[in-house]
Structure formats: structure tokens, C-alpha cells
Inverse folding.
């Protein structure tokens, strides 16, 4: 009886030690997966693209608000007519359509990358909105 209880105690201690090691490993994995610096070191261009896209979105919001308030916009200083340049870009509305399309593409790219990161962190899960 003494042998079996000491054997059980040693097994419990072994399992406890293994659990402590497993928790430490899991903590390390979670810390690495949630640390933005690790992701930046591995994918610096994604961060540059996200910063660029955020700047575009922010500038679109700021310019939209300033034009609706009737305030001066820097682009009004030198108006360019389409006849003067012969360019499609100078025509009203075309630039905003291009910028809207660019913003949409950047957001789509960000969503795809976020899904990829989620799949790496939580494998085997379906990360679409309809299944959440």
C-alpha cells in the first residue's frame, strides 16, 4: 500500500511538472503570436502597406470633412482643367474613383492577411463572418 501511494504521488508530481512545462510553452507561443514586433520583423511590407492605406483613408475622411464645411482645401490652390493637361486624372470624379478602388483593394488585402494570421494562430477554424 505504501509503495502504491508513493508511486501515485510520483506520477502526480511528474504530471504536474509536465503541465508546468506545457503551460510555459503555450505562454511562449501566445506571446509570440500576439506580439506585433514579431509580425513586423516577419512581414515589414504588410505594415508599410497598412500605414499607407490608413493614411489614404484618413486623408479621404479629412478632405471630405473639410470640403463639406466649405473650408479651403490645398488642392483648390492650382485648379487644373482637363483641356490643359489632356489627362483623364484631371477630370473631376476620376481621381476619387481611382482612390476609392485603391482603398477597397487595400482593405481587401488587409482582411485576407488577417484571415491568414488567424489561420496560423488558430488552425482548423473557419474565420468567415457567416460562420461566427
Amino acid at each position: 500500500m505504501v509503495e502504491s501511494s508513493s508511486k501515485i504521488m510520483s506520477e502526480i508530481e511528474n504530471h504536474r511538472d509536465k503541465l508546468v512545462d506545457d503551460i510555459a510553452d503555450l505562454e511562449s507561443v501566445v506571446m509570440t503570436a500576439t506580439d506585433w514586433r514579431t509580425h513586423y520583423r516577419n512581414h515589414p511590407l504588410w505594415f508599410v502597406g497598412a500605414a499607407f492605406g490608413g493614411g489614404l483613408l484618413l486623408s479621404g475622411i479629412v478632405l471630405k470633412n473639410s470640403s463639406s464645411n466649405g473650408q479651403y482645401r490645398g488642392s483648390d490652390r492650382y485648379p487644373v482643367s482637363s483641356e490643359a493637361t489632356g489627362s483623364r486624372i484631371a477630370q473631376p470624379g476620376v481621381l476619387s474613383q481611382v482612390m476609392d478602388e485603391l482603398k477597397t483593394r487595400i482593405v481587401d488585402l488587409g482582411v485576407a492577411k488577417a484571415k491568414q494570421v488567424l489561420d496560423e494562430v488558430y488552425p482548423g477554424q473557419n474565420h468567415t463572418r457567416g460562420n461566427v
Remarks:
- The mean pLDDT is 76.
